[in-house]
Amino acid sequence: MGIRVIKTALAALAAIYTAVYFDLSPPLSAGILAILGVEVTRMKGLKSSLVRFVAAVLGLFLASILFETLGFHIWAVSLFILVTFPLLARFQLKDGIVTSSVIVFHIFDHGEVTTALIRNEIMLLLAGLGWATIINLIYMPTEEKRLAAMRSETERLFGEIFRQMAHTLRDPAHVWDGNELLEAHKAIDHGIFRAAVSRENRFGRGERYWEVYFLMRKYQLDSIQQMLVLLAFVYESVPQGEQIAELLESLMDDVKSDVYEGKVEERLTALENEFRSMDLPQTRKEFEVRASLFQLCRELERYLATAKRSKRKKSHVRDSKAIQ
What is the pLDDT of residues 129-185, one digit of tens each? Predict the structure, then answer.
């Protein structure tokens, strides 16, 4: 049983008892409105309740005019739908269509529009949507543990991808199914979604640490995919490939580091300078392999540049949370 189900049950119960206490009719409608108003985040819940309330009041106003003018006929309900639903959608109130319909059908069932009836419907809205909002604001489960677990899983997958790439550089005949790449995509996309949920539960307060972290990983995964494309052209083992493999193995540990130290970047720069000082390739095959390795180094630079922009430097994060 999820926390949202429990919250929905509590909101519906409180709304129905409130409607009974204030002698609203029918009290069960307050429970229906409460069920409609419970959402997955505080921000979404607050916006949802406001939209539903405004839509219901607008629908109540239009229905009262239509029914009083044309009479309480079934075809008048259809006319109400034809007029009101497009209007609500135009003013970004389409989430309140169902709530508005619940209230309007009460008016139609009653057969007349009176001040007491209007008051009753407004009170039902306040009871149902009010309790839904209160329950939403009181408690939302924290996302920190889940996000931390997603970070660990993403870093594990990145490390395994780098290990497989290093293995391929040493042994071009090595076959890898690439499953970790697909899993990394899923973990990052889920992390971005959960980070957005976490921010909405804080009403945008605090650092956007998790959003920055998973967006960084998304950009880095794009670089990794480009490296894998280039790796496919390395069809024989060469000394330069061994050196790059050692860099990739260093990233297996660095990917879990809390700070950007720049050691891999320094080694990569030195390696590229060494490549430039080497003798030119003697065969076409050697030229193609070395060209692919050089481009792979450039893509590795892009990967490191993303981390360098997104995380804090070693001297700035002694006692604060940082991003790798």
Answer: 999 999 988 877 778 888 999 999 999 999 999 999 999 988 888 888 889 999 999
Phi, psi of 300 (to 5 degrees): -65, -35
Strand partners, 313: 260
**C-alpha span between 139 and 7 (Å, rounded):** 9
Q: Do 76 and 70 touch, CB atoms closer than 8 A?
A: yes
For every residue of 248-273, DSSP letters joined together read HHHHHHHTT-SSB--HHHHHHHHHHH
Q: How far apart are CA 145 and CA 297, in angstroms?
A: 35
The position carrying tokens 């590795």 is 300
Backbone φ and ψ for 39, nearest 5 degrees, come out as: -125, 180
Strand partners, 260: 313
- Type of residue at 25: S
Dihedral of CA atoms 63, 64, 69, 75 in degrees, nearest 10, equals 30
Structure tokens belonging to residue 154: 């993403």
SS3 320: coil
pTM for the predicted model, two decimal places: 0.71
Q: How far apart are the first and last CA of the chain?
A: 36
* 204: Cα within 13 Å, side-chain hemisphere: 2
- Residue 23: name the closest of 127, 172, 134 by CA: 127
Q: DSSP readout, 280-323?
A: PPSSHHHHHHHHHHHHHHHHHHHHHHHHHHHS-BGGG-SSS---
